[in-house]
Amino acid sequence: MHESTPRVAIIGAGLSGIGMAIALRRAGVEDVVVIERADDVGGVWAHNTYPGAACDVPSYVYSYSFAPRRDWSRPCSPQEEIQGYLRDVARDHGVLDDVVTRTEIVEARWSDEAFTWTLDAADGRTFTCDVLIPACGQLSRPSIPALEGAERFAGPSFHSAEWDHDLDLEGRRVAVVGTGASAIQFVPEIAKVVDHLDVYQRSAPYLLPRTNAPYPTVVRRAIEVVPGLQRARREGGRLLLETLIAGMTVAPPIRRAVELTSRAFMAHQTPDRDLRARTTPDHPLGCKRMLFSSAYLPALGRENVDVVVDGIDHVREDGIVTADGTFRPADVIVWGTGFHTRFVAPMRIVGGGGRELNETWGDAPRAHHGITVHGFPNMFLLYGPNTNLGVGSIVEMLEAQFGYVVDALRQLRRHGARAIEVDPAAQAVSCARVQERLDGSIWTACSSWYRAADGRVTTNWPGFMREYARTVRRVDPREYAFHGGPGDERSSVVGAGAAGAVGGVTA
Questions:
Q1: How far apart are alpha carbons 84 and 135 in whole angstroms?
Q2: Which runs of consecutive H residues, i.e. helices, occur in 283-423?
Q3: Could you tell me if residue 52 is left (phi over 0), alpha (psi between -120 and 50 degrees) or otherwise beta?
Q4: Which helix or strand (DSSP H or E) is residue 339 part of?
Q5: CA 484, CA 271: separation in Å to the nearest integer?
Q6: Which of 16, 99, 344, 403 has the most crowded Cβ, counting Cβ within 10 A?
């Protein structure tokens, strides 16, 4: 790498990928390509177009600090508005042209000899770069349960992240499987038009109120013209989220107060005792994701909606049979069953010595500060292991990671090296500290996507957003090995041809 800037390939054009590309450009790294499997930027906000799709965190916090938007239509913006924001930011900061769409990377391989990554796309194209940044997110691959007979269902069926907008649900009997963050948004919308709706629930979620009405004209005008108001509401939103995080981590009384508030709210929204019994959570608040909706429970109380709490035994051509033997007919099945939580799968990432990332991880992914992994030089994960938030704005975490990656590349140049790799001891220590804090936390109190098969919490950060930002403010060079530079025995392996190719990502 020496005096040239690195070639960087970012996989994924969502919040993390677009923001990272902008941060690199600001740092003087011009040779960046963002590779996206969809046909547009946006990540989850390009894929999840189901009715009612919207953010459940206020948009003035769930947005880049360097690109505030003053004209959000409502506190928690709908999908198309968030995707439009990401597209606008990418264009305004000059990275939209760096995005290669309709391209899925199936494998990335590191060369110990050339100090480069080679990326193979599903369509046969190959990309070569110095630095690899997987920005795939934790929730990007739809998960559909392997239920007996599901393949024999005669009617339309689709995952909520792959919504069939050509299908008219009016007058149909619809089965919704799952009651997570997506279902609580689209169920109230489709309940208005379907003939009958069966909602198959495995676990009742905690709900907090969210009406999300459009901003009055006077409020929108004030945000646009009053100096400091935009910044003040962002800081206020961050403070509220950090307070909720405190309740999940260091201040249990706050969590218990929120739980009582949620239970009271839910009881008020379900006057029918039978429905209330079926929708009352049987676990402590926080061990699964908290959800926000003032429309979901009233939708479940409609005459044309039933909540089914018996487990599904099998699927027939014309409906679903539960464990108690009851058959319920269905014309359409909508899977609101979440996402696969393996961080980069099905993409294969092969690092130094031929080690494969998912095999290295097994069922317990781990990374130094959630970003770097020993054995995988010049690779920086965004939204990696233990960087999710039980409640909060992931954008806060991502912006901290952008700064860490930029500083890592500065360290690389400062050392005159070709590759940077986290020390295994440093990684082990930081991961152990995170797990010590997570052991016995609220996230271990029930089964959820936060946890691996062995019970280890592999997704969540155990502290505050600002605490994480402080943790990754600077790269500590003592925690890394630098390869291909002065004094490194492999520096002579790289020939002039490889060094001369640094000028551009090759494809």
A1: 19
A2: 296-300, 357-361, 394-414
A3: left
A4: strand 339-340
A5: 68
A6: 16
CA dist., res. 462 & res. 389, Å (int): 8
Rg, Å, the chain Cα set: 24
The pair of structure tokens assigned to 372 is 């770097």
Please give the Cα distance from 331 to 156 (Å, whole number). 7
Q: Which residue has the tokens 């839910």?
A: 266
Pair of tokens at residue 481:
């090995």
Instruction: Return d(Cα 11, Cα 260) in angstroms, integer.
Output: 42
- Say if residue 410's pLDDT is above 70: yes
CB 210 within 8 A of CB 56: yes
Kindly report the average pLDDT of the chain as a whole number. Answer: 92
- The confidence band for 9, taking pLDDT boundaries of 50, 70 and 90, is very high
**What is the pTM assigned to this prediction?**
0.93
| pLDDT tens-digit readout, 34-93 | 999 999 999 999 999 999 999 999 999 999 999 999 999 999 999 999 999 999 999 999
Pairing of β 339-340 and β 141-142 = antiparallel
CB count within 10 Å of CB 165 equals 8
CA gap 347, 344 in Å, rounded: 6
CA 63 to each of CA 75, 78, 167, 219, 404: distance values in angstroms, whole numbers, following the listed order: 12, 13, 32, 19, 19
Strands 105-111 and 348-350: parallel
| Structural contact between residues 371 and 343, judged by C-beta atoms closer than 8 angstroms | no
- 315-322 long-range CB contacts below 8 Å, 24 or more apart? 315/147, 315/148, 315/149, 315/150, 315/152, 315/153, 316/149, 316/152, 316/153, 317/149, 317/152, 317/153, 317/154, 318/154, 318/155, 319/173, 319/175, 320/175, 320/198, 320/200, 322/200
Cβ pair 334, 157 in contact under 8 A = yes
Identity (one letter) of the amino acid at 253? Answer: P
323 DSSP 8-state letter:
T
Burial pattern 348-370, b for ≥16 Cβ within 10 A else e, equals bbbbbeeeebbeebeebbbbbbb
* Sequence letter at residue 434: V
Tokens encoding 446: 């029930």
Task: Write out the two tokens for 240.
Answer: 């509220």
Integer angstrom CA distances of residue 135 from 12, 45, 426? 5, 14, 23
Share of the chain above pLDDT 70, in %: 95
Task: Output phi, psi for 469, to 5 deg.
Answer: -60, -40
Q: Which of 73, 76, 50 is nearest to 61 (CA)?
A: 76
